[in-house]
């Protein structure tokens, strides 16, 4: 699944193409992805202007001029493709005056192009999802925070509500491993397996340690580490946007250099440490850690 930095990278990549722009045409090429699409989705999107493009946890939210919000979840393999306006023949208007009329110079949709949005400047946004674990939904903007996917989410790790005292209080007396606690979306939103592994390595905390056994000061110290790990990954994702531009504007996952994740059997990166990275399975998820550095 994409984690917060990947989703934030996709949002930032979509900003110049979508925010403030009118959706002049929408095409929905199947009835569902992970769940059924909302009724009349193409009709409800056509003619709407994207007022803001924001992120909540691992979801991209487009607030529309129709007082509805479009929710986008990339799932396992979802990608957003940005196709620039086709070159118009001399004298031809790229932007049609009739809303929803498709520009005939864009190629026909590919097999897994499930939702297509044509913007007012001729740019095309395509949601491509081979495995169909992604999702899109439309909801009232005024009550968006009560949507089933958003209602139970904890604070954003990069926001002010996520603080040292808050996290220390939420971890106190918890009998679950710290790895599981940080993956709990009720405690903090948007953290996934990769960046929890990286955070615990920097904090020198073993992933199987009980959350309630971690001192308040160590628990509070996790907050700036989480922010650092996420900020570095977002920066890495931002630098990869240039590559997406070259690949016809593809926005999806990016490769990032990790200190422990995916490095089982490789040497620990801490100077002077002679141990190798180990992997254990916790609740069906792989945890990577250094047995010498993390206690």
Question: What are the key terms here?
Answer:
2 domains, alpha+beta, five-stranded antiparallel beta sheet, 295 residues, Helicase, Ruva Protein, domain 3, N-terminal domain of MutM-like DNA repair proteins, four-stranded antiparallel beta sheet
Give the radius of gyration.
21 Å
The total count of helices amounts to 6
Helix content: 25-40%
Would you count the extended β strands for me?
Answer: 11
CATH topology of the largest domain: N-terminal domain of MutM-like DNA repair proteins
Return residue spans where pLDDT drops below 50 for at least 5 consecutive residues.
94-103, 243-247
Strand order of the largest sheet: 1-6-7-5-9
Portion in beta strands? 15-25%
Pairing-aware structural class of the strands and helices?
Answer: alpha+beta
Mean pLDDT, all residues: 89
Please describe the topology of this protein.
Blueprint lengths: L3 H15 L4 E6 L12 H5 L4 E7 L2 E6 L3 E6 L4 E6 L29 E7 L4 E6 L5 E6 L23 H8 L6 H6 L9 H11 L12 H31 L3 E2 L26 E5 L2 E5 L6
Antiparallel strand pairs: 1-6, 2-3, 3-4, 4-8, 5-7, 5-9, 6-7, 10-11
Helix pairs in contact: 1-6, 3-6, 5-6
Can you walk me through this structure?
The protein has about 300 residues and is of the alpha+beta class. The protein has two domains: about 5-145, MutM-like, N-terminal (N-terminal domain of MutM-like DNA repair proteins, Alpha-Beta Barrel), CATH 3.20.190.10; about 165-290, Helicase, Ruva Protein, domain 3. Helices cover about 25% and strands about 20% of the residues. The protein has helices spanning about 5-20, 40-45, 165-170, 180-185, 195-205, 215-245; strands at about 25-30, 50-55, 60-65, 70-75, 80-85, 115-120, 125-130, 135-140, 250, 280, 285-290. The strands form three sheets. It has a five-stranded antiparallel beta sheet with strand order 1-6-7-5-9. A hairpin with a 4-residue loop joins β6 and β7 (about 125-130). It starts with a helix and ends in a 6-residue tail after the last strand. The model is unreliable at about 95-105 and about 245 (pLDDT under 50).
């Amino acid at each position: 699944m994409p984690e917060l930095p990947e989703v934030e990278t996709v949002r930032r990549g979509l900003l110049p193409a979508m925010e403030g722009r009118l959706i002049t045409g929408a095409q929905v090429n199947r009835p569902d992805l992970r769940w059924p699409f909302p009724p009349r989705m193409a009709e409800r999107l056509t003619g709407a202007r994207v007022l803001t493009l924001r992120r909540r946890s691992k979801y991209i939210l487009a607030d529309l001029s129709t007082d509805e919000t479009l929710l986008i979840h990339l799932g396992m393999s979802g990608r957003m493709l940005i196709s620039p306006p086709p070159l118009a023949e001399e004298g031809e208007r790229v932007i049609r005056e009739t809303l929803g009329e498709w520009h005939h110079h864009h190629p026909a949709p590919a097999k897994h192009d499930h939702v297509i949005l044509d913007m007012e400047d001729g740019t095309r946004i395509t949601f491509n999802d081979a495995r169909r674990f992604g999702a899109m939904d439309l909801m009232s903007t005024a009550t968006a925070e009560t949507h089933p996917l958003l209602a139970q989410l904890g604070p954003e790790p990069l926001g002010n509500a996520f603080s040292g005292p808050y996290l220390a209080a939420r971890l106190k007396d918890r009998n679950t491993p710290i790895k599981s606690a940080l993956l709990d979306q009720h405690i903090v939103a948007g953290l996934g397996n990769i960046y929890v592994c990286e955070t615990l390595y920097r904090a020198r905390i073993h992933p199987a340690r009980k959350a309630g056994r971690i001192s308040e000061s160590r628990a509070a110290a996790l907050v700036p580490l989480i922010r650092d790990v996420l900020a570095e990954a977002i920066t890495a994702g931002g630098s990869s946007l240039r590559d997406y531009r070259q690949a016809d504007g593809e926005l999806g996952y990016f490769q990032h250099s990790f200190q422990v994740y995916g490095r089982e059997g490789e040497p620990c990166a801490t100077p002077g440490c002679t141990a190798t990275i180990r992997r254990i399975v916790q609740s069906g998820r792989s945890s990577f850690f250094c047995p010498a550095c993390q206690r």
